[in-house]
Give the backbone structure.
Amino acid sequence: MLWVLAFKSYFDRYEYLHPEITWAIPGIDTQIIRVKGLLLWKENVLLSPASGALSYPLGRGPVRVARGAVVARVGGREVKAYQQGYFVAGKDGQEARWRYSALWPAKRAELSKQFDLQYLPENTAAMRGQIVGKIIEQPQELRFIGYMPMRGDVAEQIKRKKLRVRIDSEDTVSSAKIRVTQKSGDMTKIYLTMPWFPPELVLSRNYTLIIDAGQTEGALVPQSAILEKGGRTGIYMVRGARVVFVPVEGKRLPNDKFLVTKGISVGDAVVEDAAAAREGRIQLW
């Protein structure tokens, strides 16, 4: 039994003297806010000029069309685009009442209702005067209404009347002009001009806006290098031939990483497994 304890003591001491070392590397954490809301645009419906079989020579869209383009045929009669823009052969029932004055007073829950476009059937009988599609004129400004949490640097962005936005989380940052803001509890209601208007957005009036709420830079280390000790968050840092416990500040990131914003710098050597480390002398080689 004594030889087992001696053997364990030897290896414990060996691990303390020869810990696995890693180096803090540059790290950046981008804070992203996803805001669910509604899109607003100007549109006009196209009505059937006659009764008869309905067809769409350019497809049901959304498709970019020029003024005068034939977008539908009903019983041998042509339906033309009165203006250039996006044509889509569908409707969602909101065409006559979708306007800013009606939407801005809406509560947060109302802005979460789903409004998806329903395609109109092709090669079926259409009646005179029925909707056969709609034109969303181009160019025009696409607008957005939603409730945004106040996180990161969005308060400073509001002061500048612009928000940093992305089409997706991997996209480069664009700028959306702020038209109106209104405080609502711990949220802020926003009305924006979007920096883009791709045709596929007309398939739904719902949209999740991705807002860049600022970046945090620091020293990136494995989460395993972080330890709670004596009520403090810290890291075992290598200084010469010694290991010392250094309090740090920062935030946990995905993939078992930790971004240190105060306490150590990029390039500092730290013990990779803090749970198995202790302060004192070590042998690096």
